[in-house]
Amino acid sequence: xxxxxGATRPAHGPAAEDTRAKLLDAAxxxxxxxxxxxxxxREICARAGVxxxxxxxxxxxxxxxxxxxLERLVSVARIDAVRAALNQKAPPETILREAIRAxxxxxAAGDQSGWLFRIVAHEMTQPTPAMTRVVNSVLRPLYNQVYxxxxxxxxxxxxxxxxxxxxxxxxxxxxxxxxxxPVLARLWPDMQMTPENLDRIANHITDFSLAYLRQxxxxxxxxxxxxxxxx
Amino acid sequence: xxxxxGATRPAHGPAAEDTRAKLLDAAxxxxxxxxxxxxxxREICARAGVxxxxxxxxxxxxxxxxxxxLERLVSVARIDAVRAALNQKAPPETILREAIRAxxxxxAAGDQSGWLFRIVAHEMTQPTPAMTRVVNSVLRPLYNQVYxxxxxxxxxxxxxxxxxxxxxxxxxxxxxxxxxxPVLARLWPDMQMTPENLDRIANHITDFSLAYLRQxxxxxxxxxxxxxxxx
Amino acid sequence: xxxxxGATRPAHGPAAEDTRAKLLDAAxxxxxxxxxxxxxxREICARAGVxxxxxxxxxxxxxxxxxxxLERLVSVARIDAVRAALNQKAPPETILREAIRAxxxxxAAGDQSGWLFRIVAHEMTQPTPAMTRVVNSVLRPLYNQVYxxxxxxxxxxxxxxxxxxxxxxxxxxxxxxxxxxPVLARLWPDMQMTPENLDRIANHITDFSLAYLRQxxxxxxxxxxxxxxxx
Amino acid sequence: xxxxxGATRPAHGPAAEDTRAKLLDAAxxxxxxxxxxxxxxREICARAGVxxxxxxxxxxxxxxxxxxxLERLVSVARIDAVRAALNQKAPPETILREAIRAxxxxxAAGDQSGWLFRIVAHEMTQPTPAMTRVVNSVLRPLYNQVYxxxxxxxxxxxxxxxxxxxxxxxxxxxxxxxxxxPVLARLWPDMQMTPENLDRIANHITDFSLAYLRQxxxxxxxxxxxxxxxx
DNA sequence: AATGAATGAGCCTTCATTCAT
DNA sequence: GATGAATGAAGGCTCATTCAT
Lengths: 231, 231, 231, 231
Description:
Largest interface: A-B, 49 and 49 residues
Mean pLDDT of chain A: 86
Radius of gyration of chain A: 21 Å
Number of helices of chain A: 10
Shape of chain A: elongated
CATH superfamily of the largest domain in chain A: Tetracycline Repressor, domain 2
CATH architecture of the largest domain in chain A: Orthogonal Bundle
Largest sheet of chain A: none
Distance between the termini of chain A: 69 Å
Number of strands of chain A: 0
Order of helices and strands of chain A: HHHHHHHHHH
Strand content of chain A: under 5%
Oligomer: homotetramer
CATH topology of the largest domain in chain A: Tetracycline Repressor, domain 2
């Protein structure tokens, strides 16, 4: 009835599902707090209020718990993203602004919405054996999404190097708030992470980025026109 | 003979000073690599080539070693910064470009130049009890420096909120490369962190940032002129 | 509903009997493979294809499962032995050769025929609390059988000390192959335990033993004749 | 200062050597008793009267402690063997008798002399990752020694298959007493393992074996003579 | 009769720290 | 000043066993 490799999970009843959910919740919170390596199974079980051997019973080992915690957060995030994408026939600049705002809000909220992002932050400085999975299932989709938006804004393919550099510039501005929660709070005490302030930050990041993106788009259009006139 | 809190250190001669230096060097390298929590005293002593009990003898405990490692890196960095500032009568745009380039190079270099920055990156995701000291002695000066440059570029005081937001935007773009070494390598395999590529990235970040900064400066100058005309 | 000591077993119908049988089969195989201590209930249940709690339900604990596994193997072996004895009006030398051959084949065969012998081998180096039962129900009958054969061959009572020593000599030669599977394979790689080689080994052991046994019988007969002449 | 792989041992002072010796003694006794897998570091340290983390400090891990325990026992045994071989200009039959007697005495003695043999017995039924080392350093020399004696007795090379089978027959008779200590005691309570009884057993095994060995030698000599006459 | 779930003890190992010389 | 040795507290994991349906 082990679950190693995630290959064969126990057929589980409602009671087990409840315990698993409690564990995954507690794990997500603690992994987001201190990362994979510093998180202890004991503490996760304690926070979940269950016996310390149940991680092994339900997930096989710590790494599998971590992986499934990630998967769960990813699937939740994906659902949110889809829902968000549905009503986005808006122009790409608006999409960018909304995406940045949404991400920042998630970061600051103590709840589930920011956990994934903070876990990724830990994974970046302290890679785990699950790094490949994290990259493929979390980071790559996230980056691809930003590549698309950036590409649309500057009129270049998503795979273009300039597109990527722009995407990284946008991501970097956002990610720093995901990383640096407690540190920023001490460094910058007069800037509480209230919803209002977060919105101002989000707007700033958007404006900051658009200044360059529009400039590139303009140059791009000029070059395209010149090329078409030459033909 | 304990040294906790730096209060009472063992009386020391030149031999002790040498050992301390070796330990601080080794510690800086390892703390930069894996952060405070994953670093082990054993490995630090091994790399320093000294007995495993000497950290406790000279520094009292691991945390104090960490703190003094930071202090040392900070003082070195300060000296470098001062030296760098001396021959910088250059325009602020050039200073910005050079600062970004230097920071990025330090990140990728295995040597001392990036250690402090990488330790700060770890501290952001995994704060230690020394966080306050890190913030005050490392991050605040670093940010102040960037505030100054950004303020000069946009024609606003360093303490202005918009100046700060701009500084954070610049920092964020740089910091992501300090964090994400192994992850970025997997995510973006065709972009090796060679010196050439790093320079291209540095230039991109500078251009990306300047687009907005110049725009703000322009608006600022217009507003100032309008204000002066009104008077 | 506990079954410790075999005293109070759960009342059972045919379904239960089937489960018990599957468990006893799986247990025999695994106990023969790795012995009592290294065998895990989980693996036994997995091989039996039943729920992991059923060992405790049907047998109370691991030790009782072990004991009943032994009892079952013993009773099977006894039936076989009786059947074998029926068509053995052969001379004792032939019986000895056949017995040795059968035992050796059982040792190498993955099947049921060698399980009991291999469990006894484990019990010898790693006695369990069931040792007394093993000795009384398995080893003593086995040895008695060999005592009889040896006694018949040398013309002395089964209980005679010399008979016993001879029996041990025969047993020892056979048992080493029951023990030492993997080790012998590494020590003596060119001697694969194929059926042909096992038969050669069996014949060697028989010849080796008969050389002494016949010699004793000869001396015995001489002594008897001398004694009868004296009377 | 770790000792993993046995490659780099700490340079150690007398105090450490004492602790190591206590640990190796306790380990040998317990490994001989219950084998590698069932032995616990806790119990070994308890019997040695030292802290439970010292196995790790001095040996790195349990397996390395096991390996060094073996090495030590082997070297002691080798010294004894050499000493024994020195005054053996005796005929091979005498050597055989003495070898068997010595081995049996070691088996029954509660002391160091039998530990190695009993550990090997465990290794045979429960191979450890150190099996290769055990085979090469303990079993192979032991077997080679017996091969030599057996070859000398029957006039065939040590590597001949018949020589090997004979050697195994001799070994098997001895080994059973090494294996089966507690079991034999219960099976055969009237045969206490007193020195006198052990000597009688040793003599029996020798006589039992010589009966066949002499017979083979005789046949061998006849065959050789016949061959030489034909030429 | 059976099952999934839960439990607690125990094991090996790692680590920062302390002791004695 | 420095060293080897020693210590105790966790940490992850396994296992036999028990509980509640």
